[in-house]
Amino acid sequence: MGEALKEMNKVLHERNIKAWEDKEKAKSANKAQRMLSDIKTWEEKMKISHEAKTMKIEAELESIRQHKHEKIKNEEAQIQKAMEQKKAAIDAQNQKKVLEITEKADKHRSNNTLPMKCFGICAD
């Protein structure tokens, strides 16, 4: 009977060790799973954070692009306005010159005289 008791104690001892081993393995696996879950959560937070930063940068770039585009359009408008003013000044100067020439021609017609310079046609 002593031998059977020793055998029973040995089996019981082996079961306790196996139970402890299984419990520790399960604890270790759960801990590893929690750590992996934490890492996955951290990774997702980092992705979201980086996506937000990227979106912010893209929005800033779009704002800068629009600002620069508007600035270029304003410069083009100023150039167009300056060009129109110069054209108007040239036209006004030309009209003034034409009016002066017309007045001189009328004066010569009324006085029955010839201009001093006739572009090589008239004899001076």
TrEMBL record:
Boundaries of every Remorin C-terminal domain copy: 14-116
InterPro entries to which the protein is assigned, alphabetical: Remorin_C
Coiled coil: 65-92
UniProt keyword annotations, A-Z: Coiled coil
Protein name per its UniProtKB record: Remorin C-terminal domain-containing protein
Keyword Coiled coil found: yes
Family: Belongs to the remorin family.
PANTHER family: OS02G0117200 PROTEIN, REMORIN-LIKE
